[in-house]
Amino acid sequence: MPAVTVENILTLPRIAEPALTARARSVASVTSAPSGHEGEGFPVRRAFAGVDLRALDPFIHMDQMGEVEYAPGEPKGTPWHPHRGFETVTYMIDGIMEHQDSNGGGGSIGGGDTQWMTAGAGILHIETPPEHLVQSGGLFHGVQLWVNLPRENKLAAPRYQDITGSKVALLSSPDGGALVRVIAGEIAGHSGPGSTHTPIALSHSTIAPGARVTLPWNPDFNALVYVLAGAGAVGDERRPVRKGQLAVFGHSGDTITIAANDTQDANTESLEVFVLGGKPIREPVAMAGPFVMNTRAEVLQAFEDFQAGRLGSIPAAHEAIN
Q: Where's the Pirin C-terminal domain (predicted)?
């Protein structure tokens, strides 16, 4: 699990120890993600399955893609498909994914890179492994997150951000036991490169066996920790968590704590966690397939606009979105 690493973690900016007056958040729930398949058949874990949307707000959906070792000819992606009303965030840990969309955005991302697509008023896109990876096979692992847009931005102009791993902010826990990669938002006074319509914080942390990290957390944000690999504990109450589980913290408090078990399994060197939170939008959510709107009528309109070709064209034609 390479993502973004550093030769000497002790050269990075340190996250300060929490103030004596800091209030730790407790853990509200821990759930296990069921397995499924997406797109042309690549395996995923549905990270948010069974969790009330009110606890996830402003997030809508998250899949852990893989971790899977493909044989030659096996790598899969998604066909062209539409979106409206939210943002998709694709973070690659291992392997390569290529993106194209009807707004002219596109690029290739590998370990530690992120594609951030604002669907807004409507867009068509496709995500596929490059041909050389299809031929060779290899390890494939990543995360796709859906971030809701508030009503005022539902029909914003689509945009695409290509965030290479070299742009993320890298931080260390006070003792050097945890590497924190800030992809978007702000953590401990350091901002990630992702530009968001909805105020959020998004990071990937690697925590060495036996180490722990306490992150200062915006009191206006919810707080979620998803375990990508390994095993450990969350909260001051040390609630056990393992690969494929999501911990939802309560809303009261301004720090969250994550600790790695002293020993990990043979396939995992460290505890790997995706840590995210955001300011709840608190608006009605009407969701069906690839559309996330405020009302059922708006979702039906999105389907009608897609069928009428009003969400874009292939190849990109910017004037096609009205």
A: 205-311
